[in-house]
Amino acid sequence: MDVLNQGHEQVVFCSDPESGLRAIIAVYSTALGPALGGTRFFPYPSEEAALADVLALSKAMAYKNSLAGLDLGGGKAVIIGDPRTDKTEALLRAYGRFVEALGGRYLTACDVGTYNADLDVVARETRYAHGRSEAYGGCGDSSVLTAFGVYQGMRAAAEHVWGAPTLAGRTVAIAGAGKVGSHLVTHLVEDGADVLLTDVDQAALDRVQARYPQVKTVPDTATLVRTAHDVYAPCALGGALDAETVDVLPARIVCGGANNQLATPDIADRLVERGILYGPDYLVNAGGVIQVEDERHGFSFARAQSKATGIYDVALRVFRTADEQGVSPAVAADRLAEERMRSVGRLATIRLPR
């Protein structure tokens, strides 16, 4: 893979053989501020696969932070390994040393395979670890506002498609009953929606059904996307929207918490052709990064939730811009994010007196 042509400012390969640390930190842009993005701990099949993922995720974080109105650039990190067996104090602290060495250009937080308690350990070696546990004054579980933001994006999509910002009476199919998916179920049930749910972890499905017996489960995602529903919410790993899935999808709206949902860029146009409104993933799942960013100012959940409510208005703007410009919502969102990176980012060239 040609890293130099990906548009990133910096890519750092981190290795500490004694602790077993193998990690990659990618800084896509610092035009709006330090690059904030989580650390993903995942058993990638190869270093090349890890590199491809971190490059895509870090770029998405730059666009996410821009569109969310945050004074932050975009970055991401991946640790190669199985978090169930490879995660140790020494490894996390070694990783923290590499984050610290970047001097604040990259701010890290939680992602797949990492949790608040892990960031508490990373923070023992760096000032630039966020998304920490509440015991240390952190924001706690950022999936709470990630799900809330997805719900706001879904409300905006419902307003755009059906003329009312509610999912009441609609069927929402959620792929993924993890942290984000399970919180999303709560918002939808309270709104009066019917929920279909699937996950590879039966225990996760059982936990949701124990709380909401009315939620119906299906055995796998292949079955879910062919079952009648109005809204499809991918809330697991990326690449959920490929040509095969889109061609059979009965939904009018796609809006979920997973990152990098489009398997290839042309899928955005295929969704338009099928009359399916797509809520760009990095727009609607920005609630978590809003929650983490608020930690930098002395965390207030009420303040962070108020900011995340704004995802509704931004999503409506994206949908309307897409219609006006005759492009997909994915393209409209990219254009709005890029414009803010240009217009606000250039202000750094105005020199202030020392």
UniProtKB/TrEMBL annotation:
Organism equals Petropleomorpha daqingensis
Superkingdom per UniProt: Bacteria
Protein's UniProt keywords contain Nucleus: no
Catalytic site residues?
K76
One biological process term from GO is:
amino acid metabolic process
Alphabetized UniProt keyword annotations: NAD, Nucleotide-binding, Oxidoreductase
Which residues take part in binding NAD(+)?
Answer: G176, A177, G178, K179, V180, G181
Name by which UniProt lists this protein: Valine dehydrogenase (NAD+)
